[in-house]
Write a structure and sequence with these properties.
It holds the Pfam family Glyco_hydro_114. By secondary structure, this protein is of the alpha/beta class. It has one domain: Aldolase class I (TIM Barrel, Alpha-Beta Barrel), CATH 3.20.20.70. The protein is 30% helix and 22% strand. It is built from 7 helices and 14 strands. Helix 2 links the parallel strand 4 and strand 5. It starts with 5 loop residues before the first helix and ends with a strand.
């Protein structure tokens, strides 16, 4: 590749810096997917009928339990909307539960009605996840929050490795991107260095509780939002660090109803 002349290179660099420093808390390139920047307030509600009155620019809600009309209402209010989908465990209460062969179902994961999935079975799981992400796209969601993306670090009943998880998580990111959806890396802090380029933002639970929030810095440094919640610590204990790291942080109850206490 030919090198740019010094003057032209300097001009292009300045233009790139100015573009990066301008604009709002997120960006959606023409014809591209949403790319949330660090810092926006958010609401995460997976239990109960969604309360649309919270004055925040980002909502994260259950993909199955909410309709296209619910998403459209949030859009009319100027919100971006994230589609929660479990990609790491089977759930016995989902309408597509019978599509999962028993051979991919592992041990219970501690949540009622859920069992870990054998994420090595890509040929089986890919079409199932594609249909779920089709649902998110067709309902008008802007992004996907795929849950339980670190089965390899848990007692799933399968001999999963870190490489298995990397392969599966990248598959999940590809499925989202093929549909024009942004996608977040949920937890899986140990693999952030390998997966940063594949994901548009991060979603984290209790990094302050376990003194792990600094591990999320690569997302912020790359200009990507980190949506973060704590369940046990008071905001006075975790919000100062969250603000310093530019995390989008709040206190929630574990049932993830409408109640929230933001930083």
């Amino acid at each position: 590749m030919r090198r740019l002349a010094p003057a032209l290179a300097a001009a292009l660099t300045l233009m790139a810096v100015l573009a990066a420093c301008s604009g709002g808390p997120d960006r959606t390139p023409p014809g591209g997917r949403w790319q949330p920047r660090p810092g926006p307030a958010w609401q995460w509600q997976l239990d109960g009928r969604v309360d649309p009155s919270v004055d925040v620019p980002v909502y994260d809600i259950d993909g199955f339990e909410n309709s296209a009309a619910d998403v459209a209402r949030l859009h009319r209010d100027g919100r971006k909307v994230i589609c929660y989908v479990n990609v790491g465990a089977w759930e016995d209460f989902r309408p597509d539960r019978h599509a999962f062969p028993r051979s991919v179902l592992g041990r219970p994961n501690g949540w009622r009605g859920e069992r870990w999935l054998d994420i090595r079975r890509l040929a089986v799981l890919r079409p199932l996840m594609e249909r779920r992400f089709d649902m998110c796209r067709d309902k008008g969601f802007d992004a996907v929050e795929p849950d339980l993306m670190e089965g390899y670090a848990n007692d799933t009943g399968f001999p999963l490795t870190a490489d298995d998880q990397l392969r599966y998580n990248r598959l999940i990111a590809d499925i989202a991107h093929e549909r024009g959806l942004a996608v977040g890396l949920k937890n899986d802090l140990a693999q952030i260095p390998q997966l940063l380029a594949d994901f548009d933002f991060a979603v984290n639970e209790e990094c302050a509780q376990y003194d792990e929030c600094a591990l999320l810095e690569p997302f912020v440094a790359a200009g990507k939002a980190v949506f973060h919640v704590e369940y046990a610590r008071s905001p006075a204990r975790f919000c100062p660090q969250a603000r310093a790291l530019r995390l989008s942080s709040m206190l929630k109850k574990p049932d993830l109803g409408a109640w929230r206490r933001p930083c």
